[in-house]
Amino acid sequence: MSRPAFDFDAVLVGGGPAGSCAALSLVREHGIRPDAIAVLDKAVFPRDKPCAGAVSELGVKVLAELGVELTVPHVRMRGVRILDAARVGATECDMGIVAHRLDFDAMLLDACRADGVSVRDGDALRGLERIAGGFALETQSGRLTTRLLLACDGAGSTTRKLLALREPARKGHLYVLETDHGAGDLGVAQGLCDFDLGVVDDGLEGYYWDFPTMIGGAPQVSRGIYHANLSPRSDVKAVLARSLALRGVDIERVKLRPFSTRPFVPETVLWLERVVFVGEAAGIDRTTGEGIAQSMEMARIAARHVARALRSGGRTFEPYAREVRGSTVGRHLLQSAWLSKRVYAPRLGRPARDFLVESAFARESGARWYRGEPLPLVTQIGLALAMLGCRLGLRRTGAPRASAA
């Protein structure tokens, strides 16, 4: 019996980094015909995205391996400062780049277009139904069919909603804004990213940030606040206002952009029959709220399994889920889900926060983890023993105290 005809072999819902990188990987790394692939997105690109735009070295590596030249304005993240009240711990190391998402996402989607992928931006997914051998999708422009579906449509995933998937955990909440440089932005002036953990003392489960960025070719500061939302709070904006005021920024005179993040947790669903969930439609880092580079790497894993399924007629993706969870990026995401509850606990998390501020070893290890690198077993053991010492009050890590400015 002949197989039914479909408009596409694979439809990717979501044209951000996850969807674009999955499409590019299918074509460039796995030889799938570009005219057999479609990318849908409700937005018309270039479209703005409320996000700090930090792409770790893992994401930079993915771009290089996909053969994508980084042609948009960006700045290097040359290290990190961890702040807590009047204390600062600084570590210099290449951590990746910060790029404006309006430019970065459009660059990736343009690469898909150039490869011959059917890019249908401004074409929102409205409905879907299972049919023999695949799916029928109702979009803003009409109906199309596909054998396989890749849900790459972020924290507000329409695909997840249409498939009636329950959320496995609370979503995180963020506010982001951009401003000119101020006199107190000493870390940003050096290309360093500030993570201020002092907001945990205000009851927030997260951090305030200042990152160097580039908007319209001009140096700017990306500022914002992340609340992991382990327990709900209604005063995140008020905590942000106090943090901005310390830096000479009046919250009433800037434009705030709120958004949510879906965390990757042990209960995360990564696949259903003929469907894979990629990037933030699956989940991102719960401790940092970061997810661009992780989504890009997850997209390459998804593309490998989708290409195999297209050639074999497969329809289950348990091997994809196993590979994601067993990969370095998957292990990091699961570690992050565990860490968030311990770092951001106001009292019980104090030793961990002290360790990050006071220990160069902790910051260097954290920076490597942020970059997407596996930590050697000896490093993991060293971190565990040092943390145990901090919790038991057996030793201090010796970093000098300094002004946050």
Helix/strand layout:
Blueprint: E1 8-13, H1 17-28, E2 37-41, E3 54-56, H2 57-66, E4 74-84, E5 87-99, H3 101-114, E6 118-121, E7 125-131, E8 134-139, E9 142-151, H4 158-162, E10 172-179, H5 186-189, E11 192-196, E12 206-215, E13 218-227, H6 236-246, E14 257-261, E15 271-272, E16 275-277, H7 292-312, H8 318-326, H9 328-343, H10 350-358, H11 360-370, H12 377-392
Parallel strand pairs: 1-2, 1-9, 2-6, 4-11, 9-16
Antiparallel strand pairs: 3-5, 4-5, 7-8, 8-9, 10-13, 10-14, 11-12, 12-13, 15-16
Helix pairs in contact: 1-3, 1-7, 2-7, 7-8, 8-9, 10-11, 10-12
Quickly list its features.
single chain, 405 residues, alpha/beta, FAD/NAD(P)-binding domain, 3 domains, 8-stranded mixed β-sheet, 12 helices, 16 strands
What structural category do the secondary elements indicate?
alpha/beta
CATH architecture heading of the largest domain? 3-Layer(bba) Sandwich
How many DSSP-defined strands? Answer: 16
**Low-pLDDT segments:** 395-405
Name the CATH class of the largest domain: Alpha Beta
What is the assigned CATH homologous superfamily of the largest domain? FAD/NAD(P)-binding domain
Strand content: 25-35%
Give the overall shape, derived from the CA principal axes: globular
Number of helices: 12
> What name does CATH use for the topology of the largest domain?
FAD/NAD(P)-binding domain
Determine the N-to-C terminus distance: 72 Å
Average of the residue pLDDT scores:
92
In helices, the fraction of residues equals: 25-40%
Query: What gyration radius follows from the Cα positions, in whole Å?
Result: 21 Å
Biggest sheet features:
8 strands, mixed
What is the N-to-C order of secondary-structure elements (H for helix, E for strand)? EHEEHEEHEEEEHEHEEEHEEEHHHHHH
